[in-house]
Amino acid sequence: MRLNLGCGSVKFQGYINCDYPKNFYHVLPDVACDIRTLPFRDNCIERIEAIHCFEHFHFSEALTTLQEWKRVLISGGILVMEMPDLYKIIAHIQSKKAPIEWTLGGLYVDCLKPQYPEQ
Fold first, then answer.
1. Distance of alpha carbon 34 from alpha carbon 118, whole angstroms
2. pLDDT tens for each residue of 5-59
């Protein structure tokens, strides 16, 4: 099994796409859950993709979230994480093609408080 955590509107074929049921994109994931606490048994996932979601957690949640993801990975499993790229952010700001809020979000994403979905 493979997981796409924090999938939003981007569902990967061949993956279990996980996100909050009321995510920003209003797209129902395959598994609606808080990706900090996964509803999967230990050692059952061969690959996790976490694309632009980890930076949305408060730094105090980082270690326990990574430990949870490790819990479900098989021994030798792969965790792929993609986070904002400072050079891309600077290029977007300089190009003035995207709203400044989109580009600054990569630098200042909810770093002061934990984020919990509206239930």
1. 12
2. 999 999 999 999 999 888 778 889 999 999 999 999 999 999 999 998 888 888 7
d(CA 11, CA 87): 26
Side-chain half-sphere CA neighbours of 21 within 13 A: 4
Question: Could you give the angle at the alpha carbon of 103 between the alpha carbons of 98 and 109, nearest 5°?
Answer: 145
Q: Say if residue 105's pLDDT is above 70.
A: no
Q: Which residue has the tokens 């990706």?
A: 35
The token pair that represents 93 in the structure block: 């700001």
Strand partners, 18: 5, 31
User: Could you tell me which of 48, 26, 24, 28 has the C-alpha nearest to residue 38?
Assistant: 48
Instruction: Label each residue of 3-70 as H, E or C.
Output: EEECCCCCCCCCCEEEECCCCCCCCCCCEECCCCCCCCCCCCEEEEEEECCHHHCCHHHHHHHHHHHH
pTM, to two decimals: 0.77
Q: In the block, which residue shows the tokens 């997981």? A: 3
